[in-house]
Fold this protein.
Amino acid sequence: MATNIPIWAGSSSFYPGDTPFGLYDNDSTFQHDVDKVSDWCAKRLGYPITDIELQPIQFYACFEEAISEYGAQVNTYNIRDNMLNLYGSSTGSGNLSGNRVSANMGGIIELADEYGVEAGSGGNVTYYTGSIAMSSNQQLYDLTDSSIVSLESGTAGIDSIEIKRIFHEAPPAIVKYFDPFVGTGLGSQNMLEGFGWGQYSPGVSFMMMPMHADLLRMQAIEFNDQIRKSAYSFQLLNDRIKFFPIPNGSNFTKVYFQYILKADRSNPLKPGYGSVSDFSNVPYQDVTYRNINAVGKQWIRRYALALAKEMLGYVRSKYSSIPIPNADVTLNGSDLLSAGQTEKEGLITELKEILDTMSRQAQLERKQAESDAMQQQMNKIPLKIYIG
Amino acid sequence: MAIFGSSRDASLIRSINRELINDFIDVEIAFYKLSLEATKANMYDESDTKVYYNPMRINCLALKEEKSYIGDDNGYDSTRTGEFNFLRDDLKDKNIIIEEGDILEYDNEYYEVDGVGASQYWTGRNPSTDIGVTKGDINEHGLSIAVKVSAHVTRRNRLNLQEVRSGINKPNDIPRNL
């Protein structure tokens, strides 16, 4: 018994489940359109003058693919345009497709996190606290010596750390500002006494002085300490640190510092790594067919036709020649194939160009051009001359 | 087992052939099947009063040769041969078997069938006779495409298919064209 595979019979009747993926089968608009698109494609391919060696399910597959391709192109464009706004957002089960994505600084700030770490002004690497126990008359200390170095996280000598700040500094100049004995401080008491107001309590005495006088005085204090005194300072070279002045067991017994673990900084998976990281996990899902406008639907129909043409081309060109009684014929498979592929490429290019012109950048540029043009027009309007 | 030439592909070939032969080319011939039961034969199993069934219209690819003329002691005569290629599946569906002696009417001429052949196979297999297929070892593969009929033009007045000249035909005791 010969097998007869049915071909397009002139009409079709869609049932949910007839498409390969079933992405839009339950969309009532899709159900309404899919048979019409099949009929249109068949007629555009030559039916009923010629037979169309395709079945309704193949037209359905083309239509489904066309919608998915349209959605993929639009979603790709949206992902590209919004990527900076989407970094770090949830990859959850939501669907951004068809939703407006609000601009935010999250992505840019996340990019700047690394700078924040180095600048000590935030970022995504924890600053830990550690300390070094001082010994009398010992200036040089080994930071890998865990017996004297205490770390909040990690172990000295084992975990690689980078010291960010050492709290070993001279007292700030402001604490000596009112010290009448340092020579450079504001000897207000002496001065007040010179004016005969020495008996007044300093706490309730005020003198109007220019601000720069205060600044110059503080600078003088700092210079004085730096040049004339043995200042609190340190020298950090590789794993060793040298403190000034020489610890005597009472001036300072423990020096604190802030550090980061180098492994933390190098860790590519910073906290929140389960969220949107790249193109592949931005939660754009399939588009909703019924929400696509007429422009999009027409693109989809044309793409479905190109796919059907290509498919029919494959069918008709599987065998280079078809035997007929006492002869052979060659079908138009190769023509259909090349036409279908050309149309597909053309449609994709057309859609991409349209989408490119609607990027945020392009829209801002157009707005700017519009504004410039308007400004030029306004400039040409004659100004009234006021005659009083 | 053969990879190419499955019944699905054969269905495509058949479909294209049907479209081509029946819709595009659409050359029809009338096929008159010889009625052996109604034809009276002489002692040599010959008959000059053949009876044919009513004609059937069948699509085919027809090719008729140029006329050839013969002149001899009996006079001057002409003849013509023709080749008719039928889609085998069409004949099979209509349960038509063309045999030698049957008549094909084409282009206002009657061709008597001289020979019938059906050896044009797609992918070299006839699924009706392929051993693997008939034994059920493999699925259906290949396709027998055509029935090729060679015939020659015959005189219409001896076919009893139509009145050619009144008073010449011998009276028959059976109705024409059963």
The longest helix of chain B spans residues 7-25. Chain B touches chain A through 31 residues (CB under 8 Å).
